[in-house]
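Write out the bound-state structure for pyridoxal-5'-phosphate.
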Amino acid sequence: MSSQSFEFEANPTPVDASERGRVLEDPGFGKVFTDHMAMVRWSDDRGWHDAKVMPRGPLLLDPATAVLHYAQEIFEGLKAYRLDDGGTALFRPLENARRFRESAQRMAMPELPDDLFLGSIEALVKADRDWIPSGDGSSLYLRPFMFASEVFLGVKPASEYLYLCIASPAGNYFKSGAPAVSIWVSDHYTRAAPGGTGAAKCGGNYAASLVAQREAIAQGCDQVVFLDTAERRWIDELGGMNLFFVFDDGSILTPPLGTILPGITRDSILTLARDQGITVREAPYAIDQWEADARSGKLVETFACGTAAVVTPVGTVKSRDGAFTIGSGGPGQVTQALKARLTAIQRAQAPDPHNWVHRFG
Ligand SMILES: *Cc1c(COP(=O)(O)O)cnc(C)c1O
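---
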């Protein structure tokens, strides 16, 4: 099956063009949605079936639907861009497809084939093409997800699943350039243990992170950083973004894969940095070392990265023991250069040596 195999049922009452135009001027993030959604069903006996793009609307769920009780759910996040030449593009969508399959494996769910994953997105974006904002830094955020839809309270992998993809126009995550964020070090709550679900993109990881994120806000910080479960010493990642450290010798470091989410932005930054001859290390970095290096000036920049906010500088770090500032407390040079390089490729405004841009439609 591919995008051709998606049946299309047009929304009979789409948002009218003038209202859509108003919404697209300042869409914010994750608040407004397009006219359609993609859906594919899976059952034990039929496998994947009923692929369609249909009017977006509420789902009717039995109160005993398995996901509501045991949280068997995974998701992805990627963006469709309107290019300067009027074309439409996705960024490395097959990496999202692969990670979606890997998340499914970890959560004992059926794997959605890559052609169906990509087909659902292409079919949806084609139907809702007019919803892609054209402003600087804006895009159509796509949210593929899958959950256990079987009606059964027994604890076991479900025998029925629903895969959906919805789309939401998104403005520039930070309107006036990327301000530096402040980070709270979670010394009590952890995000993921070895053998756990840290590398799977599942809703449950987010549910477990919210109390720590709330603690960060209460401490006057924007985001929380999680440490490893055994020693509470090694830096993992933020609630929803990977971390990079930049040193005074020009080298960069990021924590190794394992318990963290394998970010596609993380992988892209690693590749772009290597392309530029920057020395790159994927190695554990301790929280006390981070503070010592920031104070001595050995560490000059830190940034977080992920699809939604792309690259976000970290300005200050706060913990129960005190606080320290990274560099000048604002966006650093290496951070800004890597961000500019990545976003230029994503928007097809720079050569694409790794064939990351997927044009269609
Ligand atoms: C999605 C996600 C990221 C970023 O991944 P990208 O592929 O770069 O968007 C980082 N950490 C967590 C926990 C995530 O869920």
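---
The pocket of pyridoxal-5'-phosphate is lined by residues 77, 201, 237, 240-242, 261, 263-266, 306-307 (CB under 6 Å).
Residues 7 and 82 are 25 Å apart (CA to CA).
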